[in-house]
Specification:
Blueprint lengths: L7 H11 L7 H12 L11 E5 L11 H10 L6 E5 L6 H4 L2 H4 L14 H11 L8 H12 L5 H18 L10 H13 L1 H8 L2 H17 L3 E3 H14 L8 H13 L3 E3 L9 E4 L3 H7 L4 H8 L22
Parallel strand pairs: 1-2
Antiparallel strand pairs: 3-5, 4-5
Helix pairs in contact: 1-2, 6-7, 7-8, 7-9, 8-9, 10-14, 11-12, 11-13, 12-13
Length: 324
């Protein structure tokens, strides 16, 4: 299932739990769920409930009320609810306020990104009915994506692009085959697209600002942020990774204006002040793909620890070259 906002998790959970076709409003669903899991009456007679939540980091909101309620229900006396949570964010607990983090169980299972063999198996299982795909092409796509992010969705997207390129080249009367040639063309397109070249050409400081937007949206749970919130997130990243100078909101407005002009982000009307609305206009994966050659930026985006003897001096914003 997909949710447009975190509160819809109440409605979807109740619908699945009761097997009803009608979807109740989040407020009404919350009341019913509270009666089911927070009430002491007849709770010992209820059947055990196991709730699996994928991409838990998408439920992290400013006040984190949704996460709090779900995990609070598991701690009620004689609770029948067990939650298995899956997150793509390594530092999820750091994103949680203390009252939520204290309610999350301490049992952890760490899953590494998919490696080449796993991605090959995933792609092959999805494409097993498409005999036009050469096995070497699948292995090539899996190896390339495994070297960047290990993201299965990215690997499947690359194969989809390769299939489109093969179809464009296909001549009537010939057997259509999707080979390593088409995958290689797909990779080159991903690397040489105008958007990717633009992201790669950004100064390191502008890239860090873009990372701050992405991480802020993950923490807030909202696609739209404000310049003030991004500036605060930027400052936290600078301190966490010991990057030196922390800029004011006024200086942070400089990369915001440039990224807005180049359509990497979309902003609301008006000047670039603290309340300026910011909406990312590229996917997280596109940014990760473009920044793959920078281990520090990759670590920041993945919430990983990073140690380096390199020193950073960001006292001046670099000029940006326009990308045709």
């Amino acid at each position: 299932m997909s949710l447009t906002e975190p509160k819809q998790a109440y409605s979807q959970f109740l619908k699945n739990l009761t097997c009803r076709e009608k979807m109740e409003s989040p407020a009404a669903a919350l009341l019913r769920l509270n009666r089911m899991f927070a009430s002491k009456k007849n709770i010992t007679k209820a059947a055990p409930v196991v709730l699996a939540i994928d991409e838990l980091d998408m439920l992290v909101t400013k006040n984190q009320a949704v996460l709090y309620n779900f995990f609070e229900w598991t701690l009620r006396m004689n609770s029948v609810l067990t939650i298995v949570a899956i997150s793509n964010t390594m530092n999820l607990l750091d994103m949680m306020v203390p009252r939520v983090a204290s309610r999350v169980g301490k049992r952890r299972i760490m899953f590494n990104p998919y490696h080449k063999e796993q991605l090959t198996e995933i792609i092959h299982s999805r494409l097993q009915d498409i005999h036009a795909f050469d096995m070497n092409a699948i292995k090539f796509a899996a190896a390339r994506v495994a070297s960047v992010s290990g993201d299965a969705r990215r690997a499947l997207e690359l194969c989809r692009r390769a299939a489109i390129l093969a179809e464009e080249e296909h001549q009537e009367g010939e057997e259509e085959r999707i080979t390593t040639h088409h995958v290689d063309r797909g990779i080159n397109e991903m690397f040489t697209s105008t958007r990717t070249k633009l992201l790669k050409s950004l100064s390191w400081l502008y890239k860090l600002f873009l990372c701050s937007i992405i991480i802020e949206t993950r923490y807030s749970g909202n696609r739209e942020s404000t310049l003030k919130a991004v500036a605060n997130r930027y400052s936290l990243i600078v301190r966490k990774y010991n990057l030196g100078t922390i800029f004011s909101e006024k200086l942070i407005a400089i990369p915001c204006e440039y990224l807005d002009q180049t359509k990497v982000i979309v902003t609301g009307e008006g000047t670039y002040g603290p309340s300026q609305k910011i909406l990312l206009n590229v996917s997280d994966n596109d940014v990760l793909f473009a920044f793959e050659d920078d281990p520090l930026l990759t670590a920041i985006l993945n919430g990983e620890h990073y140690e380096s003897s390199d020193s950073f001096d960001f006292n001046v914003f670099e000029e940006e070259d326009e990308v045709a």
